[in-house]
């Protein structure tokens, strides 16, 4: 029996082909687990099926095969236990920043007094640096501010699982960096389980405990789960100085550039589920090359150098 908080088992998604063409198998044989409190990022080329996996986890779409289980119950529709932040903010345009957050908080805890709802919402808006603009409606906020409201709303409702679908994709690099820091600050306090899509390798290294690497579609798979063992708390300025940073970064970039198109390696557990291969690029880079006797040609025998004789000869 698995004790993972989220367990995805042999998930597949197919869309019917149009006008008699074959069905599109977006992904198949996708199995993975998320531990409680873990921050996992998923990266892969456009169209490989990341959002489709996330929509199924959110309960907004169904799988063609397989199952997604959270806390022992199969996911079969949306729930307040799972919060989603999309790239396009999805705020209610007729409500102010504060009212947008209050809306979520009130739905989550209908028994709370109005003052408690307000106080709780303000706390999260303050954490994302928006205390000064709480009375503005989304149209009066910048893109970065809108995304902060979405993040404040998502974290304020304290879902068991937070699903972030490229939440910073539309933001400029500076704003993105500031909100990444805010996200880390809130997550380090609340330690919710987070599953996040990003195209940004540096962002994934900054945020994640593990990064899932997805092969290209169709019939995409999550091939590897890369462990990010950089110490926390992390900051953008400091992690680049860590001796492991570029080993991790190079490994991820190499996957995206060279290996995502054809990698099919998967490891299987005793139930026959194919999990992504767990990878620690730092350990792999520093491990001595393994010598397989069977790989050696019959004539290859190790060359022994007699150092003392050589020293004598030259001496
Ligand atoms: N409702 C649908 N009907 C048919 N095909 C769909 C549907 N939704 C998604 N697809 C297809 O499924 C594939 C995966 O789409 P998805 O949005 O999950 O990819 P993604 O990895 O999130 O891409 P991106 O990084 O560009 O957001 C794409 O080929 C897409 O065209």
Automatic annotation (TrEMBL):
Keyword Membrane: yes
Membrane topology label: Peripheral membrane protein
MF terms (GO), sorted A to Z: ATP binding
Region described as Disordered: spans on this chain: 287-315
Domain spans labelled ABC transporter: 6-241
Pfam families membership: ABC_tran
Gene3D superfamilies: P-loop containing nucleotide triphosphate hydrolases
Assigned keywords, A-Z: ATP-binding, Cell membrane, Membrane, Nucleotide-binding, Transport
Subcellular compartments: Cell membrane
InterPro entries, A to Z: AAA+_ATPase, ABC_transporter-like_ATP-bd, ABC_transporter-like_CS, ABC_transporter_ATP-bind, NO3_transporter_ATP-bd-like, P-loop_NTPase
Family: Belongs to the ABC transporter superfamily.
Protein name from the UniProt record: ABC transporter ATP-binding protein
Species whose genome carries this gene: Billgrantia aerodenitrificans
